[in-house]
Amino acid sequence: MVEAAGAAALGIDLGTSGVRAAVLDGRGEVRAVEGARFAGLGAAAAPSVWWQALVHTLDALKARVSLRDVRSVTVDGTSGTLVAVDAAGAVIGPASMYHARAADRAVLARIDAIAPPDSPARGVGSPLARAVELARRPGVRAILHQADWIAGRLRGCFDATDANNALKTGGDPDALAWPDWVAGAGLAPALLPAIHLPGAALGPVGAEGLAVGLPPGAVVHAGTTDGCASFLATGADRAGDAVTALGSTLVVKLLSDVKIDAPAYGIYSHRIGNRYLAGGASNSGGAVLLALFGADRLASLTARLRPDVPTGLDYYPLVRAGERFPVSDPAFQPRLEPRPADDGVFFQGVLEGMAMIEATGYARLEQLGATALRSVRTVGGGAANAGWTALRQARIGVSFLPSRSEDACVGVARLGLFGGVAVCRPGEAA
Asked: Alpha helix (H) ranges present in 135-276?
């Protein structure tokens, strides 16, 4: 049965394996979420496959909820995925994916020589270097990010990007402009879209947007990266709010009034309204647990956790040597000795070590000038582990709040609905 009204915002997430989309009402409550995988449609590097997956996703949404009241449409994409297009927005060749590396060493050297030391456009995976390579294809008239191209098709206009997707391509998130050194790297400014604040209104949907079922009154908004959208999905929206992702690695992200860029720690800031989202990633995390204990033992070991009885073990759990955040040392050694005979105690000691790393990570961000931590939300596989949560909260010492959602499509829908400046729902404290 199709629900008739209340759909105010559509958020579209272009992930690594497929598309997901969410419809929210005017208060930001989720009305429906649907998705489609790239598998079976073609190669994930083919933009036509992204579009097909989006069409399938919207068809599934329309079977559940009417889109006639949708007023905002916002798209996020994988950070660093790029597309070359002609004057009409038609794709020229395959996309340059987020995990690709630039082949032209001369371009990489030029960027290293002229880019600011804290620019995330540097390095072997530099999206800027890959953009220079894409621009050499015959007939190219614009270089777009993944989210730009989908939003452009919905609008019928390929002239806009957002400050967060532009960041790794060299964009200045404060000036909302491409600095002169980007042209010095070999990328003509005429090939680059204008930079807008995430959540800013760009323009009404065009012919293709109407054809896939969007209403004439819908407006396409500037989007963001999938990582930023995932943060916003949790409900974190005030300075000092943080999100920890407990996946194969341990990632912390903090919403700050102050911009933090510390390349030695792999930290750089995305812009969210008039604030900044700063984060860092440790090499510790779920991959260490799998290496030490295997997936089949985690549940039984978790049942033996005693958060009120600390082990006193001083571990720094890593799979191999090397750490970047909160310690920046490529030769940093794992610390997993002494190992007790009881694997339950050993397991708790490892989790205590990870909790220490997380707490140190937030302390590091504050030391570098970020807004003081006030709350933590958790996403990822470890979020449901109550014992681990108790260990973490004891070390971090702030409120742990539930996440409203882990779906990036929900976060990017909220960005369009609330404009990116105050993404709390009406009636909530700002």
From this structure: 146-155, 163-167, 180-184, 207-211, 226-233
